[in-house]
Specification:
alpha+beta; 4-stranded mixed beta sheet; 9 strands; elongated; 5-stranded antiparallel beta sheet; 471 residues; 13 helices
């Protein structure tokens, strides 16, 4: 019987070469000859000091323009106005017990609540509408153009827009045009009775004779002054005093009791004086009811015929003496802050529109079409699909605007006149006024630190949100 053959003795090297994991790449610790682990001396890639060298200019710039001013402001806020005496937290105590600071803080709250919401909503509306118009690019260019204008120039522009005089201020020019179309001003807004003429102001804004008149009696004369002769209507003729009066008639004259060049008799119709045409005249009975109405002719005369016997009062229609609408006092203490927020909206609406439009273009159209196929209206698609999908972009826009609003300075300082600067005051303006106007660097630095404390939470929230989105 032949012996059983034995396998050849290949030694331990063969067993190692053909064992498990023989074809796998070496692990992190299985470095080949001459290869070193990362992080050790001689590792591949540039050394750490070279990265620091490239970052050094940026770090120096950051320290010189951000860290040093912040640190020095905190340090300076602990000293008095000249900077010679250490006062600790006294500047912060003064800041919170100073009435202008509370006004500025109140206005900042109004800005934070109103301005970012208004700009974000306007940007959202513009972004959605530009998807449905043909000249979308041109429209976006027009809306975004104010961003190319400095805040100083924008403030100068809106200082003129908000002028009270409608001939100079665009806002009041538009408002007065609409108002005059709906309720036109009277032809004689500056006219009024001559003193001692027996004509007094009526309760409704017009004028009336103090005494009563009767049919067939002496003609009632209503002398008015205050209107310039060159501002009379073209139909105005030389005034005429009625002579004969019928027994059932009341006839009188309304005229401008002013003789060009001087002279003339007060309360009497002179040949050089002119009548006031187109004025409404009412004949009011003893019971207060209007018996008849008419208008003055070119020579200022008016006539009521067929009048029943009795005592009557002559009244002039108040609509003929209505003053023209002067518009809104945009730069007054009541609405100056909303007016400046309107200017801020004009500047920043383009910024919000561009960012939201970029987010809108990234929304999958399938989701919108699916909602429409399911029977949703355009408003439902916008409210339940578009806005939720845009919520990250809307939040970025809102927080960014909030940061800028907390630091608002230029528009408030330029638009608000000096008389209402205290009513439109915000923290940044108060800081500038105290630090450079009153030359109190200690209190101004305390205000700057307080403003930084208000801005930092919004910045931290924004940075953390960016990190979560990029992770």
């Amino acid at each position: 019987m032949a012996p059983t053959p034995q396998p050849p003795d290949t030694g331990g090297a063969a067993t190692t070469a053909h064992g498990p994991g023989a074809n796998e790449p070496p692990g992190p610790g299985d470095n080949g000859p001459g290869e070193q682990e990362p992080g050790r001396a001689g590792a591949l890639g540039p050394p750490g000091w070279m990265a620091l060298a490239f970052l050094l200019p940026a770090l120096l710039f950051l320290g010189a323009y951000m860290l040093y001013p912040i640190g020095f402001s905190v340090y300076r806020s602990l000293w008095d106005a000249p900077g010679t005496t250490f006062v600790g937290l006294d500047n912060y105590v003064r800041m919170f017990t100073n009435p202008p600071t509370f006004v500025a803080l109140r206005n900042n709250v109004v800005w934070v609540v109103v301005a970012p919401i208004a700009v974000t909503v306007a940007g959202l509306i513009f972004a959605v509408l530009t998807e449905r118009i043909r000249w979308a690019t041109a429209f976006k260019l027009v809306v975004f153009m104010p961003m190319a204008v400095s805040f100083l120039a924008s403030g100068v522009i809106f200082r003129l827009v908000y002028e009270q005089d409608p001939e100079r201020g665009l806002a009041n020019a538009v408002i007065t045009t609409v108002q005059d179309t709906v309720a036109p001003a009277g032809d004689y807004p500056d006219a009024g009775p001559r003193e001692g003429s027996g004509v007094v102001a009526a309760d409704d804004g017009g004028y009336r004779l103090e005494g009563t008149v009767r049919p067939g009696g002496p003609p009632p004369l209503v002398p008015l002054v205050g209107t310039a002769a060159d501002e009379l209507p073209g139909s105005a003729e030389p005034a005429l005093e009625p002579d004969a009066v019928a027994p059932d008639a009341v006839v009188g004259t309304v005229w401008l009791d002013f003789t060009p060049g001087g002279g003339g008799r007060e309360g009497a119709v002179d040949p050089e004086e002119r009548g006031l045409p187109g004025i409404g005249v009412r004949l009011v009975g003893a019971d207060g009811a209007t018996a008849a109405t008419t208008e003055t002719a070119g020579d200022g005369t008016f006539s009521f015929t067929g009048v029943a016997d009795g005592a009557y009062t002559v009244e002039l229609d108040p609509r003929d003496f209505t003053e023209p609408y002067g518009g809104v006092t945009w730069l007054g203490p009541t609405v100056v802050t909303p007016a400046i927020i309107g200017a801020y909206l004009w500047v920043w609406a383009g910024f919000a529109m561009v960012l939201i439009a970029a987010g809108l273009s990234a929304i999958p159209r399938d989701a919108l079409e699916a909602a429409r196929v399911d029977g949703a209206t355009e408003w439902q698609v916008f409210r339940r699909v578009t806005v939720p999908l845009l919520s990250p972009v809307l939040m970025v826009v809102f927080v960014t605007l909030m940061i800028y609003v907390l630091k608002i300075f230029d528009l408030v300082f330029v638009i608000a006149p000096g008389s209402v600067q205290a009513d439109a005051n915000v923290l940044a303006v108060e800081m500038w006024r105290v630090a450079f106007g009153a030359n109190d660097q200690g209190l101004g630095s305390a205000l700057a630190v307080f403003l930084l404390v208000l801005v930092v939470p919004a910045m931290v929230f924004q940075i953390r949100r960016f990190r979560r989105e990029n992770s």
